[in-house]
Amino acid sequence: MKKLLCILLVLLGFGATAQRKFPIDSLNNQIGLYANKMQSPMLFVHFDKNVYTNNEGIWFTAYLVNYADAGLYHTLSLALMRDADRAVVMEDRFTMGKGACFGNTVIPDTVAPGNYTFLVTTSRLVNGKPEMVFAQPVTIKTQSEPVFTASLNPLDTSANAAEQKVMLLVGVPGPDPDPDKQTPPP
Asked: How deeply is 107 buried, as exposed, middle or buried, from its count of CB atoms within 10 A (0-12, 13-18, 19+)?
């Protein structure tokens, strides 16, 4: 029993000296020092959702992480790129301050349904390319239709311009009305 106790004490003593020689936090300290030395700024953008319709508002918040000087980053560029052919269908710019940007914009009503990507960059360039790029895939689901349609039709085509009366038709979306079947108001 004494031998076992002696062996245990020797092992515990060896373990204690090993920990003093090579502390477990040493690796964490080295990683921390490397991160401070090799600090590279990052851009993160939070969008309100990832499925939109055209003619819908987009709200976002952008943050710079690990930046050294906020004055170097004064503009945030937002572009909507179609995944099928990499065409940019919308772009907008926003002012940044103190490493953050908050904004909103509207997806144009000409954007067709499909898969897209928001590309966000800052104003700072390195070797002619944006220093930071953030990409967020999004889906445009349906095209929005206008709430109403309007058309102007002359009532009497034989009248001159000064005497001519025009009828304004307002209706719900659908096929174009046939002007020959419409009757003028009394």
From this structure: buried
Rounded Cα distance, 75 and 44, in Å? 14
- The 10s digit of each residue's pLDDT in 13-59 is 554 444 445 555 665 666 666 556 656 778 999 999 999 998 899 99
Question: Which two three-digit tokens encode residue 10?
Answer: 């020797």
Query: 25 by DSSP, 3-state: which?
Result: helix
Pair 144, 53: CB distance under 8 Å: yes
* 66/166 Cα distance (integer angstroms): 64
Secondary element (H or E) of residue 11? helix 2-21
Q: Which residue has the tokens 């897209």?
A: 116
- Candidates 43, 113, 51, 111; CA nearest to 78 is 43
